[in-house]
Amino acid sequence: MMTALFNFLVACAYALVRPIARPFIVSMRYLVVPSAPGSALELDPHKPVCYVLPQRSWIDLFALDRICREQGLPRPQRSERALPSANRAAVMYLPALLEAFVLRGRARRSELSRLLEVAAKTADYDVQIVPVSIFWGRSPGQETSLFRLIFADSIQAGRVQKFFIMLANGRNVLANFGVPLSYRSYLAEVADSSRAERKLVGVVLDELTPAVETRQRGRQYA
């Protein structure tokens, strides 16, 4: 009962925030790495896609949705409890990957655990997992505006702070797409869903962490 109420409140908040953020997302200017990701990523159009973002952020999700639409990539949608399909991409966040370990063996499972359990039990079901990092503004070491420095992007930013980060840095955004990862290929290598899950989480962390660390060290992206 409480879970259903919580999910309802989250859905209401999402429906309220999205139109408020839309004008700023529409005016956003961005660069994409790699360029022309629609062809560079070589996604299989017949397999579901699941994007993984470093932090829980609707602002990043809204930005990713616009970028995917304009770059010819499957558009992400809030996962809820529906698994991604060839016509409906999903999005998850790095904390959900970590929950795959923290919640192991408990009654409640993480989004990733449910996703990969279905993939393991269904022979013809695979998921293309794409790590994505969204960076707002220049790195702090390269910023010259005090206002933008105060609202410099940070993986620790809360929801309200993230909104002001979008306002301050929406004209200078970088989207970094990692190499797509096929869960089915990892499962074939180890023949055990738990080991495949651990290996996949490690690879996603390897994809996301260097970009974030490089950003924090002050290298300019845009």
Explain how this protein is built.
There is one protein chain. The chain is 50% helix and 15% strand. The protein is α/β, with parallel strands linked by helices. It is globular, with a radius of gyration of 18 Å. The protein has one domain. The chain contains nine helices and seven strands. Strands 1, 2, 3, 4, 5, 6 and 7 form a seven-stranded mixed beta sheet that branches.
The tally of structural domains comes to 1
Distance between the termini: 46 Å
Radius of gyration of CA atoms, rounded to a whole number: 18 Å
Strand content: 5-15%
The count of β-strands is 7
What number is the mean pLDDT?
Answer: 78
Task: Sketch the topology as an H/E string, one letter per element.
Answer: HEHEHEEHHEHHEEHH
Low-confidence parts lasting 5 or more residues at pLDDT below 50?
214-222
Largest sheet: 7 strands, mixed
Q: How many separate helices?
A: 9
Helix content: 40-55%
What shape does the CA trace take?
globular
Q: Which structural class matches the secondary elements?
A: alpha/beta
